[in-house]
Specification:
The complex is a heterodimer of chains A (154) and B (142).
Chain A (H helix, E strand, L loop, with lengths): L1 H19 L4 H8 L12 H20 L21 H17 L3 H6 L5 H24 L5 H5 L4
Chain B lengths: L7 H22 L5 H6 L10 H20 L13 H17 L4 H10 L3 H24 L1
The chains are: A mainly alpha (154), B mainly alpha (142).
Chain lengths: 154, 142
């Protein structure tokens, strides 16, 4: 049951990315290109993705948290309220550079696996390598990846 | 650059679907819908009782274009302007940065901001700024 739910959630997430235009790197880059505003060539669509996503999630989370526990798990696993640190900012800054270079973030990189041909697969492979590298480096330097550490599971 | 059309309605609806997915994952599994977190934990050494669920989630994402197509949408081909070397560098940065910074556009951008997390707010402000700066340099300075 739990496996089926997660498959369906992945599917809905992917359909959302496709419908939103977020799965298309050209659209993402045209959104990030603020210098195109004066020329009238800025694509503001992704603001609406954020707005729709956050509105539904904010409301839905509130309803979900009224429950004692999730439907199929022992408890809600939320990242702890640790303070922002250098690692957070460094990671986010590097992520942003990569996002700005190609227009792909992790979700769209996966929805493009079947549709984006060789270039999309090359990005996906490099992304997985980058993730593996970060995990190794974190383990080697004994830095904890916060959500793993703080996940509260029975 | 490749021109794209302004699509506020479709983007709002797509965003709402992404939000619905995030809410369902919390309601059923009690988990944040952070793609980088889910995908990176499929990589060694982390294999645990949740691996199958993570794989199922990723399979759903990968197969979404087929479902969209079956539902009557056009085959959603991503328009990729970047060259192969740029894609490699970008992929490494996106993968490394999202794990190092504990999240990406979904985990920090949708889930974290919805929970009013200060860490996520700082992460989103940081990656939006660096992404905007990167596009500016690539498109207008180089």
């Amino acid at each position: 049951m739990s496996i089926l739910v997660q498959f369906a959630v992945g599917l809905i997430f992917g359909l959302g990315l496709i419908l939103a235009g977020m799965a298309n790197p050209a659209k993402v880059l045209n959104f990030l290109d603020l210098a195109a505003i004066p020329a009238g060539r800025w694509d503001a669509s992704l603001i609406f993705v954020m707005a729709g996503g956050i509105a539904v999630t904010m409301l839905g989370y509130r309803l979900a948290f009224r429950r004692e526990r999730p439907l199929l798990a022992a408890r809600f696993a939320l990242p702890g309220a640790s303070r922002p640190d250098t690692r957070l900012v460094t990671g986010a800054a590097l992520f942003g550079i990569g996002w700005g270079l190609a227009g792909f973030c992790p979700g769209p990189a996966l929805t493009a696996a079947l549709t984006g041909g060789v270039p999309a697969l090359i990005f996906l492979a490099a992304m997985l390598a980058g993730m593996a590298l970060a995990r190794r480096l974190a383990a080697a330097t004994a830095v904890s990846i916060a959500p793993v550490e703080l996940r509260r599971e029975s | 650059m490749i021109e794209t059309a302004f699509t506020p309605i479709a983007s709002l609806a797509g965003g709402a679907l992404i939000g619905l997915a995030a809410v369902l994952l919390m309601l059923f599994q009690g988990r944040i819908a952070g793609i980088s977190g889910i995908v990176s934990r499929l990589l060694p050494p982390e294999v645990d009782g949740e691996t199958a669920g993570r794989l199922a989630f990723v399979a759903g994402l990968v197969l979404a274009p087929l479902v969209a197509y079956a539902a009557g949408s056009a085959w959603p081909v991503p328009q990729i302007a970047a060259t192969i070397p740029v894609l490699v560098v970008a992929g490494l940065l996106v993968g490394f940065g999202s794990v190092w910074g504990n999240g990406c556009t979904s985990g920090h951008g949708i889930c974290g901001l919805s929970r009013l997390s200060l860490r996520s707010l700082i992460a989103v402000a940081t990656f939006m700024a660096s992404a905007i700066a990167t596009v500016f340099v690539v498109r207008h300075l180089l």
